[in-house]
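User: Could you go from structure to sequence for me? I need the amino acid at each position, not a summary. Structure tokens:
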């Protein structure tokens, strides 16, 4: 029998499904939206060209169509989801680009209409740690008093040498400062990390998980690196190929990483989604379900749980 308490389906890690069901007592779906923000790492404020893996959509390949109003984007996706889950409620997820990169007036006009949607139980906002001024964080706190607010914060790696190589445009200290500002206000933070960044060794990725596991965070998304056509990453690879993470190593790595993450941290993702037409590598990532199954299998085989080694 599975002794792990934070899963309804025999997983050995704290599943997002478990968290949502437990909190809301019903099916909750996330609706990805594109509010048309840009990113300071693209427009020259912090950097130009963006992170080398980032697509034109600002890592929001599955967010709504930016040319539609947010209301229409929400309507379209929620109607589709309702066909599958007739009674479900929603989290409005501002996914594409950097969603706190704008004036306070713009942020208010973007997020606040969703406070009036009866079927929206919460708002999730994806952003960068260098777009979290005290003023913005004060506003986010205000917003959190009116709805369930989740902040998704990109880190990707704790290693500054990799951050520089991928043109991340901020270092680990900046991430810590942003996180501290959010946590000072008791805002829920889900951190994103990526496995398979160029030239990162297995040990470096484990180190990222160990360090992240010691931070005051509430959620974690672990992704594999996607190489998409025509990104700077793809061009870099074509010029000078670097070793790619194999499926087997990814699974082994994720299992070990999970052991360093306290079991209170909700694991929102263990693989990512990439637009198939643009995906160059890794092609093994397409079969997401089998990867998740093999992660479960290996955890069972080794008798490991999230947080086993904390
Ligand atoms: S911070 Fe996000 S949106 Fe900006 S360039 Fe990097 S991945 Fe793209």
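Assistant: Here is the amino acid at each position, in order:
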């Amino acid at each position: 029998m599975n002794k792990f308490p934070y899963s309804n389906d025999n997983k050995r890690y704290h599943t997002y499904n478990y968290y949502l069901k437990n909190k809301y007592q019903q099916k909750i779906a996330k609706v990805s939206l594109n509010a048309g923000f840009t990113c300071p790492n693209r427009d020259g404020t912090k950097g130009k060209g963006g992170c080398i893996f980032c697509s034109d959509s600002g890592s929001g390949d599955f967010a709504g169509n930016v040319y539609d109003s947010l209301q229409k984007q929400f309507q379209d996706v929620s109607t589709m989801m309702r066909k599958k889950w007739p009674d479900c409620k929603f989290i409005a997820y501002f996914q594409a680009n950097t969603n706190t990169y704008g004036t306070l007036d713009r942020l208010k006009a973007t997020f606040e209409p969703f406070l009036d949607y009866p079927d929206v139980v919460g708002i999730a906002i994806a952003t960068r740690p260098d777009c979290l001024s005290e003023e913005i964080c004060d506003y986010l706190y205000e917003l959190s008093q009116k709805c369930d607010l989740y902040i998704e914060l990109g880190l990707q790696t704790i290693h500054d040498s990799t951050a520089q190589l991928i043109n991340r445009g901020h270092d680990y200290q900046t991430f810590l400062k942003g996180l501290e500002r959010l946590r000072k206000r008791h805002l829920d933070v889900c951190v994103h990390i990526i496995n398979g960044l160029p030239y990162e060794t297995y040990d470096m990725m484990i180190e990222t998980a160990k360090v992240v596991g010691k931070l005051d965070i509430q959620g974690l998304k672990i992704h594999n690196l996607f190489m998409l056509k025509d990104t700077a990453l793809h061009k870099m690879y074509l010029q000078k190929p670097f070793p790619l993470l194999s499926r087997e190593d990814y699974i082994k790595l994720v299992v070990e990483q999970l052991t360093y993450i306290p079991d209170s941290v909700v694991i929102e993702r263990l693989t990512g989604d990439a637009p198939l037409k643009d995906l160059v590598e890794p092609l093994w990532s397409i079969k997401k379900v089998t990867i998740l199954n093999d992660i479960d299998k290996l955890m069972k085989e080794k008798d490991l749980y999230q947080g086993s080694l904390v």
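One structural detail worth keeping in mind: Strands lie at 28-33, 89-94, 120-127, 148-156, 188-195, 219-224, 227-228, 266-269, 279-281.
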